[in-house]
Each structure stands twice: as structure tokens, then as C-alpha cells.
Amino acid sequence: MTAPPKTYHVKSFGCQMNVYDGERMAELLGANGMTPAPDSTSADLVVLNTCHIREKAADRAYSDVGRLRRKDGSRPLIALAGCVAQAEGEEAKRRTKMIDMVVGPQAYHRLPEMVAAAAAGSRPVDTDMPAISKFDVLPARRRSGPSAFLTVQEGCDKFCTYCVVPYTRGAEVSRPAADIVAEANALATGGAREITLLGQNVNAWSDGSAGLDHLIRAIARIDGIERIRYMTSHPTDMTDALIAAHAEIPQLMPYLHLPVQAGSDRILQAMNRSHSAASYLHTIEKVRAARPDIAISGDFIVGFPGETENDFAATLEIVDGVRYAAAYSFKYSPRPGTPAATMPDQVPAEVMDERLQRLQARLAEHSLAFNRATVGKATTILIDRKGRLPGQMIGKTPWLQSVFVETDASIGDMIDVVTTTAHPNSLGGVLATTKAA
Ligand code: 5AD
Ligand code: SF4
Predict the structure, then answer these.
(1) 177-234: per-residue pLDDT in tens?
(2) This model's pTM is above 0.90
(3) Which residue from 15, 16, 18, 158 has its CB within 8 A of the most atoms of ligand 2, so it is best to mutate?
């Protein structure tokens, strides 16, 4: 038995959806009378909202649990949440005595009662995927930063052979449009100027007949919402209607995260991606025809089982073909229970290392080129954080580039800047008026 916790700290790892879930858990604990602690060392309750997508991420979660022990030997109440919690379930409690409760991504609306049970000495585990949506039970959104995430779709039916998501997040479910629009309204009232619609397969969102483009149009009508983004999309769900939305809706930002994973059709097939390199490139062409200035970003996996040097060369080829503005690239990591984990011809670690280095060097060239091409141009940034230097703020361009600028403007302001310097992951800029003066 421990005293019921009064303060909490939620720490999220992994994707944006975890960031979103983390915020909603915090709001829920707040609505139940707890207050936020600035960090895990001072909190009575620590929620580790974990990611299971790659091997290291799960190991990191367990070592983070270990590190919550304090110098005097005490520790907070610990909730393991997120996708590691979903995948490990009861096993998490066997791996360490330090975990007091285990709560999966579809069950965290039950967190307050689980915390009470854990404080009373039991070690509850809830990895159910209940028919009642957590969204119906969570408290309404109130305050928001200038840039907010909003989950519209969860789960995945695609079953790429390397991926744990269909197992940890379950089958594809779309939230009703009316609920999403209500949440977007609440976020706008709470201070959001930009909303990023989230889903594992966000472009598969559907309300029976209407697709994501309709949802984007509805959100574009909300007062105060000046920027809309969405991620992550699957190439085969990139409908013509969604592509047309990029040409027609001014609030929809010129940015598309469209992972391809690999460039070789043989590997794409083994990955069960249901698209070829050519069909992917064709989709990109259509998107660029609708919105010529669009920035494309992607995800890549190197060293998928059976990947030869020739296959890898095809990945570099697609990278050069698309000229990604930004990208995330990973070494293949075998995930237990996925079909690829037991495929023959697993690629040796040193081969993966070397390919990843070559891929990342190539990707960095393209993102630097993309950023360089914007130097000297005027654009508007939405300020989302302070820079490290005094008087420096950081904001995002429509193309999701971070611009460092000296200004007395505040977080949440939209200001006009002229970019002056380019780096692979950021830009320097000055106020547009400074330049003109
Ligand atoms: N190994 C390496 N990378 C993976 N991803 C998903 N599963 C794995 C895995 N088993 C990457 C994909 C996906 C991104 C979110 O994580 O590139 O798009
Ligand atoms: Fe994983 Fe593929 Fe689904 Fe993306 S589309 S979540 S990579 S199974």
C-alpha cells in the first residue's frame, strides 16, 4: 500500500500518436485531481508511454523503468503504458518488480482506477481493446499549444511483414467526423492554430462514405485553424480526392509524409507493401502536379531480410527520384511475432550499418538541397518554441522546416521571415521587415 499519488509525470516515446496519447493521459489524471510534476524525479506517479516499433525502443523502456529508482532507494508509482505495455502485458511485471500497472493504448481511459488499485497494492494489467472507445470517456480538450495533434484513425490492417503496429494498435478504426470536428473546435478555442491529424494509416480514414479530404475541408472551416497537416499515409490509400485537396484547400500545408520503405519491388513484395516502386513514384507525380511546391518526406528500412546490394541500390534510386525534403531511416529490426522475423537471409548487422550510413548521407544531401532552395525567400513561420540563444525563437515553415530567428514575438505567433542560411535539418532567418529596412 502506498498513499494515492498527488502528482504525475507522463513521458512519451516514439511516434506523434504516443505524444497525443500522453497528453490525453495527462489531461485525464488532471481531471481526476492530480497535478503535473515537472519531471519524473519529483512525481508520485510516472507513466512511461512506450514505443515498440524497434527493438531498442522496448529495451530503452525497461532501462528507463530501472532509472526511476531514486538515490534514497524510493521510487514513484510506475505505469507502463503504450505499445510495449500492449505487447508485453503480464510479462512486463515478470521482467521487473518496479512496474505497478500495465496499460495498453486502447485502455488508458481506465488509468485513474488502475492508479487507485496500484496504490492499494495490486498490480493491474489492462491490454483490452474494448468496444467502447476511450475517446467517448476521456475529458474534453481544453488548453492547447499552437500546434496540436488530433488522432482521427487508429490501428492498421495492412500487415507489413516487419511491423508490430497491427498487433499493438489493433485493427483500423476511424473516429466519427463529428467527434473529430468537435475536438478540433475545442483545440482551436484552447489556442491551437495548427492541427496535425494523426493515424497509423491516416489516409484510410473514412466515415462510411467520406474520406480524409472531407474531414480536412470540415476542419479548414474552423475559425482560428490556419494550418492542417496529416500523417502517416500509406501509398495505396492516396486517393485522387485527397490529392486534389492539396490543390484546393489553402490551410492544407504543402507537406506529405509518404513512406516507401524500400525501392526494390522484390523487397516491397516481401514486405507486403502492396505497391511497387513505380506506382509509388506515380502517386508522387500526381501529388506534385496538384501542388508543385509540396515537400515529401519518407520512412526507410535498410537490411530487410534478403536485401541484396542491388535491392539497396534501388532504394537509393528512389531517394534520388523523389528528392525527399526530410526522411527517417532505420535498420531493420526483427520483431517477435511478425512474419519477417523468421524469414531466411537476415542481413548481418555490419551490412545494415554500412547501408544505413550511405542512405542517410544521400538523404541529408537532398534535405540540404531542399532547404538551400528556400534561402532568400519570404515565408511565414508558426513559432512553436524558444531557441537556445537569448532572443531566439524557432518556428515552422509551411514545409515543416524549423527556422531560427531573432524576434520578440511569442510562441503561437505567426510571423513573416526571410530565410538566410540552410542546414540539413533547419534554416536561419531574419524578420521580413528587418530585411526590408
Ligand atoms: N524495423 C525497422 N523499422 C521499422 N519500422 C517499422 N517497423 C520496423 C522494423 N521492424 C519503421 C518503418 C515505419 C516507421 C514508423 O518505423 O519505416 O514507417
Ligand atoms: Fe506498420 Fe505497414 Fe501498418 Fe505502417 S502500414 S503501421 S508500416 S503495418
Answers:
(1) 999 999 999 999 999 999 999 999 999 999 988 999 999 999 999 999 999 999 999 9
(2) yes
(3) 158
- Could you tell which of 52, 157, 160 is best to mutate to test the pocket of ligand 2, judged by most ligand atoms within 8 Å of the CB? 160
Domain boundaries 7-126, corresponding CATH code: 3.40.50.12160
| Homologous superfamily in CATH for domain 378-435 | Nucleic acid-binding proteins (2.40.50.140)
User: Residue 5: CB within 6 Å of ligand 1?
Assistant: no
Q: How remote is the CA of residue 309 from the centroid of ligand 1, in Å? A: 20
φ/ψ of residue 431, rounded to 5: -60, 140
Please give the class, per CATH, of domain 140-253. Answer: alpha beta
Cell of 340: 519477417
Measured from the CA of 169, which atom of ligand 2 is nearest?
A: 6
Q: From edge to edge, which strands make up the β-sheet containing 77-81? A: 35-36, 7-12, 45-50, 77-81, 101-103, 125-126
User: What distance in angstroms lies between residue 10's CA and the mean position of ligand 2's atoms?
Assistant: 26
CATH number of 283-373: 3.30.750.200
Strand pairing category for 295-302 and 326-331: parallel
- Ligand 2 centre and the CA of 16: distance in Å? 15
Question: Residues near ligand 2 with C-beta < 6 Å?
Answer: 156, 158-160, 163, 165-166, 200-201, 234
State the greatest distance between any 2 C-alpha atoms of the chain, in Å, as a whole number.
67
Judge contact between 300 and 359, C-beta under 8 A: yes
Specify the domain boundaries for CATH 2.40.50.140 within the chain.
378-435
